[in-house]
Amino acid sequence: xxxxxxxxxxxxxxxxxxxxxxxxxxxxxxxxxxxxxxxxxxxxxxxxxxxxxxxxxxxxxxxxxxxxxxxxxxxxxxxxxxxxxxxxxxxxxxxxxxxxxxxxxxxxxxxxxxxxxxxxxxxxxxxxxxxxxxxxxxxxxxxxxxxxxxxxxxxxxxxxxxxxxxxxxxxxxxxxxxxxxxxxxxxxxxxxxxxxxxxxxxxxxxxxxxxxxxxxxxxxxxxxxxxxxxxxxxxxxxxxxxxxxxxxxxxxxxxxxxxxxxxxxxxxxxxxxxx
Amino acid sequence: xxxxxxxxxxxxxxxxxxxxxxxxxxxxxxxxxxxxxxxxxxxxxxxxxxxxxxxxxxxxxxxxxxxxxxxxxxxxxxxxxxxxxxxxxxxxxxxxxxxxxxxxxxxxxxxxxxxxxxxxxxxxxxxxxxxxxxxxxxxxxxxxxxxxxxxxxxxxxxxxxxxxxxxxxxxxxxxxxxxxxxxxxxxxxxxxxxxxxxxxxxxxxxxxxxxxxxxxxxxxxxxxxxxxxxxxxxxxxxxxxxxxxxxxxxxxxxxxxxxxxxxxxxxxxxxxxxxxxxxxxxxxxxxxxxxxxxxxxxxxxxxxxxxxxxxxxxxxxxxxxxxxxxxxxxxxxxxxxxxxxxxxxxxxxxxxxxxxxxxxxxxxxxxxxxxxxxxxxxxxxxxxxxxxxxxxxxxxxxxxxxxxxxxxx
Lengths: 275, 409
Description:
The complex is a heterodimer of chains A (275) and B (409).
Chain A: H1 4-32, H2 36-39, H3 54-62, H4 65-96, H5 102-111, H6 117-130, H7 137-161, H8 165-173, H9 178-189, H10 191-207, H11 210-215, H12 224-229, H13 239-269
Helix pairs in contact in A: 1-13, 3-13, 4-7, 4-10, 7-10, 8-9, 10-13
Chain B: H1 6-26, E1 30-36, H2 44-58, E2 62-68, H3 71-83, E3 90-94, H4 95-101, E4 107-108, E5 129-130, E6 133-134, E7 136-148, H5 161-171, E8 177-179, H6 188-201, E9 207-208, E10 211-212, H7 217-232, H8 241-249, E11 253-259, H9 260-269, E12 276-278, E13 287-297, H10 303-313, H11 316-326, E14 329-330, H12 339-344, H13 348-352, E15 358-360, H14 370-385, H15 391-406
Parallel strand pairs in B: 1-2, 1-3, 8-11, 13-15
Antiparallel strand pairs in B: 3-13, 4-13, 5-6, 7-11, 7-12, 7-13, 7-14, 9-10
């Protein structure tokens, strides 16, 4: 039986942590719905003022936020799909096959995570210029995928390690090819981990800024991260607009996470208990 | 082939070809990209885009596509693109970034694009020439003066530094602050500008004759006074410039040494807000000037289009329109202010009066190293503001670091 006082302390701790995590988002909503006069009031306004909802209407009317969000969604979903497609087979190979240089290959994949984007952006820009990939969302998807595939490969490898070989052998006895085993047997078993990996890839594509700012200059192809930053002016920043776009930028990502949250938790804990 | 017949494929191909032909007729204008932080500016950004659009409407062959890049990210983004062999065709550079790009050979001399001898340029034009070559056009120059809120200063604008300190103290309280400036690394460029105004105002320079002078008595005195203001509690510590400027036009800040463009922002964002401008309260009249240059990317092949835009923008009418939309700034050529503008913005005269005392925020005789100096100076001044070390000690360290890290001596 749980001690009621320790239960209450646990609940209180959870509430405090929850408040710390959600307060910035709440404050963003409040600021986006605060009048200019109250923005720097001596006593901060703690509740949103619905009468200021015209800030959102103005933002929709005067900025390209919908186009930016659409571009971000294309880049994030593209990065997610391509990363998963490209990571499954190497993850399976690293998990199941024995070959020369396997350790080295795994290390190289791991080492790519140690290189910051800013270091690679100049050579990447030159390569993209030659391949006519500048100013394309496809180019952005490729650049982001290059960064997410290694980490997803490692995550999937860990999950595939936990899949019993007997299942694969049974499939092979039934005449299934190696590719069929991967796609029809292994992938369904590691589906929760795939969901967790998808979230990582999606959020990388959704939040990414350096590539999006450098590799795309066309206003129509801007992602939301770049569009949002473009309001930070040399002399002034329209705080209401930035906060309203901030809310719109955060919401789709939060909704996506809520949709797949169940699988993510299952994926995170997959393989933690063996036997 | 299964599914798609050869005929369908041919029809699709000819359709695509037809579309391509149509598109090539529709896109006869050669488009130049023009990157600037200004396009992202609330108030001035839209007006500048509208100004650029006038060029687009006046042209059959060329068009400008504005590219808004946040001011703080412009240099990093554009230098990265230039390093990769591309980048925008035209760039509005801040003075420090401009002088960093010149020795790297990233900018194409404007002299080689078109003949500019017929234009009467402003005095600040001399700063865009390097080794006798004109590398850019002075797109905007803005003098510095003290903006103040008369409602918060009962004795009006302070005439000297002690009066300024007293007025700042008196105006502080009940959610209001006497003064505002920058003192954080995320706003390194602005921090450098604000520090430089103190240094120039107390008779100092960051360098001269090829030597840094970071530990000169004048610079140490300036940093001492900067710290004095910081320690007084009269500034909204941590507020970035965009925030405290907004606080200013909402009546929360009494004084702010800033450039004329900021006055323009106040007028645009809060037309009913009453403010004025006066000379900065430092012992010397010398103050910085914000100098932004229009430069042409050496990687670009669109020389004729760039020449057409520069030729257009230097005409009296576009220059006058640009000057009006920029606020209390000057443009490349000498354009007298209209009576209407002076009547509408009387505070402009305080900024214009300081033109003879303006100097760029550059390390004299070591201009191309200014960005490196910025880093060293700001890091060390922060040690004194936050870490509690003495101005004399931190500026001695800054001098030593400048000699070893920047000049490799």
